[in-house]
Write a structure and sequence with these properties.
The structure is a single chain. The protein contains 17 helices and nine strands. Helix content is 42%, strand content 12%. The protein is an alpha/beta fold. Helix 15 links the parallel strand 7 and strand 8. The protein has an eight-stranded parallel β-barrel with strand order 1-2-3-4-5-6-7-8, surrounded by four helices.
Amino acid sequence: MFSEIAEKYSWTQIESEINAKSKSDVEHALQVANLTIEDFKALVSPAAAEYLESMAQKSRIATQKRFGKTIQFYIPLYLSNKCINHCVYCGFNFNNKIERIVLSDEQILREVAVIKEMGYEHILLLTGESPKHAGVDYIEHAIKLVHPHFKQVTLEVQPMSMEDYQRLIAVGLHGVYVYQETYNKERYPTYHPAGIKSDCQWRLNTPDRLGKAEVHKIGLGALLGLENWRVEAVFMAMHLQYLEKKYWKTKYALAFPRIRPHAGEFMPNYIVSDKELAQMIWAFRIFDNDVEISLTTREDTEFRNHMLGLGVTAISAGSKTMPGGYAQDSEDLEQFAINDNRHPKEMLEVVKKAGYEVVWKDWDSYFEIEKEG
């Protein structure tokens, strides 16, 4: 389990090691073919700030070599905002006085109809963490309901057992995103004071259970704004490297969500600038040429436009972060405020103008078609 490995490392020690990296360390990392964790520390260090252009170009080349000039489109569908967690940074926090809803079959299918009109073939199902209202039975039923309409169904829901994941894979589950939020185990309870998410170790070992269940794809991420992003990145890199070696049949994806306005009063402890977020993305692309990297509508239009082709392989567009948001818009139910409100058709034209092709389905199917052609 990765928790056993993470336990061996000190947050403050890694932070010191990152800050100690020199320009020569960065230059070495940009020259070697197979990067170590020490090389990755250099790429996310303050010393690398002077090498962002070189990192961007190296990231562009690596991305195009592996994924071609393509960008995958996906869209989130929120099924429920009921949640028993007390996460201080989230609009679904149990203590927030918002209307709670769990979508019925009829409501889900209305959402599906709107999403299909947009052209999507890849859907990400999300819920708040409430086993009573949106547990494995509800999620299994939801997958069965939407799977006939999409070529790929992924999840971002509460962590489950290996057996539950196997059950969901059997009905069409393709992949699961599970964000640790922060790898700082000492500070983790501060952000998750109550609820099932307060169990740091259970959440940290979720990708292990997914790997054992042999899910097709596992997504990792940390919520940027809680702790030092440079240290979060190193723990994510170690986690990714560990998983790829142990569960080598599984594909992997990364996401880099920054805290957005939401119901509640929490403010970020660490502001991550656009340049720093770009540095983090490019460092991961150089470190791992094969990992998928997504950029959500949390980011603004200018940043998302700029990052096309520079490491990102998947984006969402036209997203709603509230249950029922596609068929009937209601900001009162949203998890966080969207930053890029462009319609998928508008985003499609932006991608085309940049010289890229939009892929509406999973990468494997796309590459198989390319090989046959």
